[in-house]
Amino acid sequence: MPEKNFISGYGKPMKYSAYTFNFLLCQSVINCLIGWLIILPAFAQKADTFTLPLKISASKRHLVDQKNKPFLYQADTGWMLFLNLTKQEAITYLADRKSKGFNVIQTMLTGFDDFKNREGHSPFLGNKDFAQPNEAYFTHVDWVIRQADSLGLILSIAPLWSGCCKEGWAGEGKPIEKNGIKKTHELGRYIGKRYASFNNLFWILGGDNDPHADKEAIRQLALGIKQTAPHQLITYHASSSHSSTDVWENESWLDVVMVYT
Known about the structure:
It comes from Rhodocytophaga rosea. This is DUF4038 domain-containing protein. This protein is α/β, with parallel strands linked by helices. The chain has a single domain (about 5-260), classed as Glycosidases (TIM Barrel). The protein has 6 helices and 11 strands.
């Protein structure tokens, strides 16, 4: 497979990558305690088995599986997994990461604004209308999620990557603003309902940015997912050096607080 299709960054050919984040783990922002998780490549580590979905430990300091077994979040950033890879390439990529000890893949559901997948399908029909999800696009996403699930891999998915540099879905004149609060909420419900049966999913709201004028729409996206898939954890990826709770306070949907360092 061409190495350019092992997409771990913003379209750049990176064969291996890893992110380091600090996490504050909590069931509610009010009573959370500080915990640390380091996301590192674990090339030689033996794969472990967990009973999904993940949940927050009773101490609110770390992630555990359904049997309360501690879970170390070891993620590769395959941001363009749903977009830049064919089915066969996706199988090869996921199997490769599994063999190297990764247990999570961080990826974008819809890529950047104006992106299409390898089959030429955009996430939405019309003028990026959130009320018109493209079934052909999401059918491919369904298939990739099932492949990851069969390997015991968790997918941490950013539904609408905000973007740091006007490349994402958030910001002035961008699709989140144009679609508005109601459509963005309904998109969250659509995503949650479509993927509620999967236990290997974890959601990342935002993406390299703090919420601004579209903050309420992003909140409604999160609430829509939580209403229809309450067992799936949600975090927020703020701008560099900010934590989720720097930009969100006392949010019922915020399960895991991420610090982008």
